[in-house]
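@channel anyone free to eyeball this complex?
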Amino acid sequence: MKNKSTLLAKTALLSLLFVATPSCKKETVKETQTTKTEAVAENPLASWNDGKNKQAIIDYVKDVTTEGSANFIPVADRIATFDNDGTLWSEQPAYFQLLFVMDRIKAMAPEHPDWKNKQPYKAVLDNNMPELMKEGKKGLFELLMTTHAGMPTDVFEKTVKDWMATAKHPTKNKPYNQLVFQPMLELINYLKANQFKVFIVSGGGIEFMRAWAEDTYGIPKDQIIGSTFKEQFENTKGNPTITRLPELEFNDDKEGKPVAINKFIGRKPVIAVGNSDGDLQMLQYAASNPLKNLEVYIHHTDSVREWAYDRKSHIGGFDKGWDEAAQKGWLIIDMKKDWKVIYPGDK
Amino acid sequence: MKNKSTLLAKTALLSLLFVATPSCKKETVKETQTTKTEAVAENPLASWNDGKNKQAIIDYVKDVTTEGSANFIPVADRIATFDNDGTLWSEQPAYFQLLFVMDRIKAMAPEHPDWKNKQPYKAVLDNNMPELMKEGKKGLFELLMTTHAGMPTDVFEKTVKDWMATAKHPTKNKPYNQLVFQPMLELINYLKANQFKVFIVSGGGIEFMRAWAEDTYGIPKDQIIGSTFKEQFENTKGNPTITRLPELEFNDDKEGKPVAINKFIGRKPVIAVGNSDGDLQMLQYAASNPLKNLEVYIHHTDSVREWAYDRKSHIGGFDKGWDEAAQKGWLIIDMKKDWKVIYPGDK
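replying in thread with the prediction:
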């Protein structure tokens, strides 16, 4: 059960929810959030500072989409794959899906009075971190299953949508879907305008993602790939239902990402974008494409506007990937230097 | 291992390769095969005879794509899912993928001299059906694994492409990708022209399908879904490779079809088309869509131009599905009456 243990390791990061002390300043809520659509149309990467990274992206896209270019790529092969956590939106102080887990436990608690005296639930309800840590991976796994499995898929989708519409980030105090990166929204739109088919390939849950990411990024659900639970179809009452079972089916991280890309897309990408060592295999896979390709790492360098972390971070660790990117000349985007703004609506 | 046993049951159909006596007349090879592209543009369902079935399809598409209609369906929700074997191409005297298995064993035999004296290979090489039957499901499963696993995905893809370019159907004497149904090519194009996103949801292998179906049907690889083998990513020699492992991962048949649709597409279809009881759950799933939906069964009624079979057939059995279609008023296409031609190039 290698996959399960890998994901369990990930859920251990829940601990950060309780202990992290974000280095960012607390921001006030912005009244209006715009995605600067008009600016995007005129200047496709308007939120990117001029420099070699922005230029390298534009040069690549122009080269491979210009008919007659030696590096021209037919439309069918213009596949771009993006990681989500830390690449398209923030992931601190813990993966947002894990913050969803905690919120759900608290929301579900009134219907489960026994949780007040039952671990690992009691620890969550009490915000008692030392106790939750004692429950270990087994406890965290139980929280994940309790909040993600045992219900029909449409019920789960509505739960995520409702959470996304109401929940706010603990320190940024914004809805989570406003903590996406404006420069990346522009990059996605720029690639779509150049007839790239853009996919998300996330370690996050595929149905957690699809509940909000389609609207947020303008990427259709069938182009959003993630980790999966085993599911079951039943039609016993003349009411066809797909139920989420409490069993992880596939962990879409590390070696899982190229495997998922092959399964869901069936083509090697020509563009791959990530931010952590968990994306390294996806970038290696794209780099092995005989067509001209582009590998991009997002480096979290902005402790003021976002968060700064890399080699030693327990979330989004960027260590082996950094070395390989430097060695191979992949783009490393410096969020502090390369991006004019981080989030939509920022000035 | 319910999935494995289900697929094993399917492989047992290999036996039909040896025993079937097709009721069709042997046809001569047509020198030119056209897909009647021009005719399609002028008359979207040109190879369909006028009648209530053709009209019902046209009425449905017009109704749900006309702005202002009470049944209007937004583009994002225009999802159509098609079975492949028996729905988009023929499946007699055995699933074509199983004929590929037999051809591959024979092609691989020179490199495996021991197969001459080793079952189940000897039985295949000797065309010795009684002996192969003795080997049972275990033997057939071994043949499937030998021909489909243990190689990198790109090697497997090339093998299928080469086979498709050279192999011919044992009685029709045509390449297999010319045994697709001209009226269905027109239906796919008609739906695409009306902004439906068309997916194949096949019990056949996903990579077997993608090697030829993209070109044949004009459907991108990422919209072709099928049964999967477990796969593994490795990058030990600096050469990223995805290898097909000898383990079935998912059987995309019966209850598996709605599960795969939810996983790969993330939306309930509004159109579902199949030909057998293996497609029933997919049609039930589409029929439960609150949006106006269309369920279509292809009934193999033409013993002269194609094959005639239904309730008692060991391939493409159409029994429970027929009853439910009749009860619920789903369309049942009578290939003999509803289709002017069967294959591209037919007159």
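from a first look: The longest strand of chain B covers residues 224-234.
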